[in-house]
Amino acid sequence: MSKVLQCRQLSKSYKQGDIETKVLNDLELSVDKGELLAVVGSSGCGKSTFLHLAGALDTPSSGHVLINDIDIHQLSDKERSKFRNQHIGFIYQFHHLMMEFSAQENVAMPLMIQGKKPKQALLAAKEMLDQVGLSHRIDYRPSQLSGGERQRVAIARALVTKPSLVLADEPTGNLDSDTAEQIYQLIRSLNKTANTSFVIVTHDLVLANRMDRQVKLVQGKLLPLIDINEQESVIKNSGSEDSEHQVSESHV
Fold it and tell me: What pTM does this model have?
């Protein structure tokens, strides 16, 4: 199966004075075409840093990010911006819609940036809004939409360029449970329809468990979530065995 995203020995450090903080440490990851991947981890562990590197919004200290076999950090700034616009979609916890524009205009914006004619871009935006169930809201501005509707517009905007990869940062984190369920169903449906890969950073373990695969960011590396559970089980079992051994010795 073809790989949409590959991270190889990806590292990122921040330096302030003489103090260097390593956020990502030789991180490895491969994401298949059409895969839904959840990334979980504690606050401050580097999840947003990882998304920024994977989405060509920041540059690594070392290592490589390949999208469709293109090493994106070997591109010039201009080439990287163009690549990002054509191949990567972004969904944020807070929709980041432009409040002065309608839903249709917001969704059309990435296509206009590509150089598409306004009429063509607006038609594609309308079709995308139809797919996310907002055909009756295309002329509404974000202030006139509910939180769930705004997030649907953000999803439509992320997918209107037909990217091979969508990076989502807490896409349901600001929504009530019913709306969050609707957004999950929408993502799953669009994933199947377009065979688009999604990498979703979330604190919601219920949402994470419904993805095709789950990984956890720990000490700058991504580990399969099942490995984390197994490690915790081993630690607990080891602690129990030590306790039993101590009890046995106390009776000798």
Answer: 0.81
